[in-house]
Here is the input.
Amino acid sequence: MKTLSQISLALNKGEVSSVELTKACLARIEQKNAELGCYLHVASASALQTAEQSDQRRRQGQALGELDGVPVGIKDMIFCAGMPVTAASKILEGYQAPYDATVTRNLKRAGAVILGKLNQDEFAMGSSGENSAYQVCKNPIDLTRAPGGSSSGSAAAVVADMGYGTLGTDTGGSVRQPASFCGIAGLKPTYGRVSRYGVIAYASSLDQVGVFGHGVKDAAMMLSGIAGYDERDSTSVNMPVPNYAGLLTGELKGKKIGIPKEYFIEGLNPEVKACVENAVKALESRGAQAIPLSLPYTKEALATYYIIATAEASSNLSRYDGIRYGPRLGEEHGLKAVYEETRGQLFGTEVKRRILLGSYVLSAGYYDAYYVRAQKVRSLIAQDFRKAFERVDAIICPTAPTPAFKLGEKTNNPLEMYLADIFTIPVNLGGLPGISVPAGYSKDQLPIGAQLIGKPFGEAELLNTAYALEKELNV
Ligand code: GLN
Here is the structure.
């Protein structure tokens, strides 16, 4: 295993070429993807071409930066011009992205080599990867287990050395939870830090593009590669993008780390609890101070999320009607049948469940009781965090309530599946940045992540705290 930052250095020193790295990744994909299900589309020819161009630039002393020549993968929610983009749904089968998402364009401008499109839960709805309409993605660490989701392929590809950094999306935990299950670093930036232009919308007030890498430095490098203001996304914020990796010192002296009691409830998996407690000690031994605190509205977060996310999803997914994108069914039976048959047959069960829930909470008779109330509770959850951050610099808690669960274990029980994100969802409701860092292993040798939560647009400080933790734990 080599990390993105090691690869970047090796490229810089001329120890390896981008073509060699790209070929090695493509060979592993060729060899193992049928079993692991990380990629839905592999762009071998264009990847090799970009790699050659990168090597040429480097030979002429014109390398574009740290990501130049680095092979990366992109979740299938995100547009790459000319490549298929399906959100792992049959309703978009055969659809090709007409343009690049801004994050894709940014990575291309940085010289990164795009290997292809990564598997996921359909429309990013799920926590295990099992809701992909094409193939179940397996956890490379234990093939009987889920890699987490919804960015299943993005996490698994990094572990399986099928890309040195990847992009995912995180609406309720879809970057951090799979990072925890796969034993790598996964960062969800602040709402507004990264453009979502060209990213398929799930729940627009929560969606954010996130990054994966073997370690914190890799995640930092990927974030610098994609972040920044974009006039095409009115929710993106105009703030300078630092060289996040360059700011990592591991220095924590005097920093205050909040321990929210609501995240350490009775019944929490003891191995997860032990790992996070150990992480707190590690931060303390680096000079940080642990401060107990309370985020009282935490217990309302899951219900609030499943009202807001489904409401927004039902609206966002109304555009898949068989007229504008993808396959069209039922044409011979008239327009109404086109809608019914296309949507009825090509959306998966979980997606339909969400659309039904979302339409229900938005319906005239229930709008105030559910949707309006959920918006109010959301403000209270955000306020909890604001108050906490008056006292502390970061918050630490588990990323997921358990290590990676078995494939098939939760597929018949949606509520159990929803609970996999209980610790990550509040961060999205608050619009805050969060990162999962490997913090140890269960007795079955399954990775366990610790989640650090930062202040809005405090990615530099958050990454530094995570870096200190990673160095101290040395997992
Ligand atoms: N598992 C959560 C859901 O299904 C979160 C997914 C995500 O972050 N995209 O909604």
About this structure: The radius of gyration is 21 Å. The domain at 4-247 is CATH 3.90.1300.10 (Amidase signature (AS) enzymes). The chain is about 40% helix and 10% strand.
